[in-house]
Amino acid sequence: MPILVTKNSPICIRPSSPTTPVTPATNNAAAVVALSSFDKCMPPVPITMLLVFDHPIVNPTETIKTSLSRALAHYPPIAGRLIGDVITCTDDGVTFVAASAAKSTLEEAMAVLPQTDLAIGYPNPRCHGGADEPLLLMQVTEFACGGFVVAVTWNHLLADAAGMAQFVHAVGELARGGGISVSPSVRLWDDVSLPGVPSSAIAAQRSTLDFDPLPLARLDVVVLSTLISRVKAAAGEFAGGEPPCTVFEAVAAVLWRCRVRAVMSSSAGDDSPAPLTIPCNVRKLAGAPVGYYGNCVVMLVVPAAAGVIANSDVGDLVRMIRSAKAKLKLMATVAVVEGKEEAAPAVWYEALAVSSWRNMGMEATDMGGGAPVRVTWQPERTMVPACVVCPPRRDGREDGSVDVSSMFVREGHVDAFKDELARMIDDGSEE
Predict the structure, then answer these.
(1) d(C-alpha 77, C-alpha 93), whole Å
(2) The pLDDT value given to residue 430
(3) What is the pLDDT of residues 409-424, one digit of tens each?
(4) Which end of the chain is more exposed for a tag (fewer CB within 10 A), N or C?
(5) Has 415 been annotated as catalytic?
(6) Annotated catalytic, 427?
(7) Could you say which of 92, 191, 313, 366 is catalytic?
(8) Is pLDDT above 60 for 269?
(9) What does the pLDDT average to over 88-96?
(10) What is the pTM of this model?
(11) Domains, the chain, with CATH or none
């Protein structure tokens, strides 16, 4: 029997206490917030995060709706509007939808429901800003078992995943009747606290908008803990007392090689570029103040030819990733300011972006009944082939296996990718 999700009409949630209009001349709280150069590097596309809660709370929809309003009072730009390159703190609010699947359990629904049932979407692949477009959308869907899903969709120009994790965590703290533990830093209209990204880098990052979203397959991937352990062993020890291979590095190397092998259209000697791009949170390196929730990400590029990736030992791929990460501190400071950043080759389907939502605190969000059993990225469309390494799950992933939400292969390459991953798992083919 099909699972029916009933959605109420969207409503507008405004801050519980109005933001006092302030002009830039007062040099106080921000009524107008200029996008930072880090913000401008991001494409204006929607990002959707699903937080799945299995423990009931009293009236989740009303509880979260109230706490959302209170949280917006601490984060005025989120309730504002994007006009050109500035956010005006207008208190126009965010869009909220209450939904229910009264005859279905959470477990049944999560296996089959598409994103369009669990989240509100923007009408277009790109966010256009303007007085009529909110910067954040939220849907709370309640299920017969008492579980519920909170879906948060936002314009990437507003915040990166770490910044949104901070905001959602604050919503949870307020839902539990407490105060917020991390005070958001005031975003000033003339904020120069972060190093500037040169215009050439901004143009390079925004060039992804030149591509129209193609129909890539939505694919949930599980990288088993046994494979991760083998990859770590294959990577060996690093010189200079560096820490060993991380879970993320191992997962990224596995996905990179399996995907390249799956989509290669020529021989294993193919020298076409197939770069790996890793968005890296550089708040500490860039000197961002505590509580900063705007974008503060540097795109780390690991350049390589498709044939090299396809034929490399996966441990060698980990070492390539680690070598690129060694440049991160320079990229976040001097290199960013002086424009010495390395740009990815001008390719689209051949490239892969791998993000990590681990260690950002999303999995600790608590609306009153405990942490979510899982947190996932829910793409409806993407400007580049991409995936997100999700936070650890509490419902059957206690062995250390890792979930990945992806939209990085065409439908015709799904089986080939699955075969490559299965071969690596079954055959121990890290070489």
Answers:
(1) 9
(2) 60
(3) 999 999 999 999 999 9
(4) N
(5) no
(6) no
(7) 366
(8) no
(9) 96
(10) 0.91
(11) 6-175 (3.30.559.10), 199-427 (3.30.559.10)
Residue 107, Cα to own-chain centre: how many angstroms?
24
Handedness of CA 119, 123, 126, 131 (dihedral sign): negative
SS3 99: strand
The Cα 85–Cα 51 span in angstroms is 30
Answer yes or no: are the C-beta atoms of 292 and 279 closer than 8 Å: no
User: Which residue is catalytic, options 156, 169, 270, 316?
Assistant: 156
Residues 244, 247, 249, 253, CA torsion sign: positive
Note the pLDDT of residue 267.
Answer: 44
The predicted pLDDT at position 207 comes to 65
- Report DSSP letters for 260-320, one per residue: HHHH--S-TT--SB--EEEEEE-HHHHTPPTT--S--EEEEEE--BHHHHHHS-HHHHHHH
* Distance in angstroms (rounded) separating the CA atoms of residues 394 and 53: 10
- C-alpha distances (whole Å) from 428 to each of 152, 227, 247, 254 are 38, 8, 17, 12
Q: Which residue has the tokens 């049944």?
A: 108
